[in-house]
Design the sequence.
């Protein structure tokens, strides 16, 4: 595992997936929770690259997830093309739009960048309502046909398993990207952009690449949710999802993409799975972020890793 950076996180992630699938069993509601968790995790992982690695906070991720969702809906209802192409077309369109939006807002940062991209997300939702001939209007698109992969149509449970494994693969790849030379330069750019520019690396280009990667990952999540739900509408991917996606890596741990996965799991459990806190789950989540920032600034994953490093020391001392 030491020879392959990020492999330890993948092993723990797969173990978590196995435990979750044992918990789910044949319960349809729990299966829905898993696909929702996978969607939240993919959107949060999409935000991880430009936000936590590159330091560029874009609030347009509801639009990027929506592009992925409508790619599934449009290919299903308006064409006879294989539905699997939606997970290729959607991320490409979302990445291209993220690059275009990044070029327009390249001189903005901080609050102003967040505000402009937030308005773009709202404008995109309004356009979906007005473009009835394309998007189906406020009613959206439904009756998503079954996915057919060379004659194989996955069952609902197989979709759940596939979505959980997809999250693990994406988190692992982003973790490897974070540890790669490119990732090191991007993280350095976040803290010292002038030094990176002085080294001959174009900071705006790195930012655009990070935005494109993030938008593509979010679009994959949007397509997954649309397929699992069987429909997509303008209100499917709201601002609530975007704000939760900001919190998720902070709860789980901003130091690794796996923190976004842990945060997404907790967010779904608090906001959807516990009836006792269903009406105040988001508030509890926000308070949890404050507590974690005070007690464990590195998040749950970072805190657990610190405890892991302390355990052998205690054993040695007792010996």
Sequence:
């Amino acid at each position: 595992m030491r020879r392959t950076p990020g492999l330890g996180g993948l092993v723990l992630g797969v173990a978590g997936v196995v435990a979750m699938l044992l918990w789910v069993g044949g319960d349809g509601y729990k299966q829905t929770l898993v696909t929702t968790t996978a969607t939240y995790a993919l959107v949060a992982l999409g935000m991880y690259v430009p936000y936590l690695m590159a330091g560029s906070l874009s609030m347009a991720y509801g639009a990027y997830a929506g592009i992925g969702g409508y790619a599934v809906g449009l290919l299903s209802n308006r064409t006879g093309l294989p539905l699997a192409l939606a997970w290729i077309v959607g991320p490409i369109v979302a990445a291209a739009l993220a690059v275009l939006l990044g070029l327009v807002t390249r001189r903005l940062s901080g609050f102003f960048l967040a505000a402009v991209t937030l308005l773009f997300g709202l404008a995109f939702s309004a356009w979906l309502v007005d473009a009835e001939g394309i998007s189906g209007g406020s009613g959206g698109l439904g009756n998503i046909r079954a996915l057919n992969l060379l004659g194989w149509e996955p069952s609902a449970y197989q979709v759940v398993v596939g979505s959980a494994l997809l999250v693990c693969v994406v988190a692992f790849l982003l973790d490897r990207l974070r540890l790669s030379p490119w990732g090191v330069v991007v993280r350095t750019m976040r803290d010292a952009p002038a030094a990176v520019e002085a080294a001959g690396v174009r900071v705006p280009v790195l930012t655009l690449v990070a935005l494109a990667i993030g938008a593509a990952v979010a679009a994959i999540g949007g397509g997954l949710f649309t397929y699992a739900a069987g429909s997509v509408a303008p209100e499917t991917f709201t601002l609530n999802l975007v704000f939760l996606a900001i919190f998720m890596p902070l709860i789980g741990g901003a130091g690794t993409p796996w923190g976004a996965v842990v945060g997404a799991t907790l967010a779904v459990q608090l906001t959807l799975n516990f009836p006792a806190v269903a009406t105040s789950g988001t508030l509890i989540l926000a308070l949890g972020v404050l507590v974690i920032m005070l007690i464990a600034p590195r998040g749950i994953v970072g805190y657990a890793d610190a405890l892991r490093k302390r355990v052998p020391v205690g054993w040695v001392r007792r010996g």
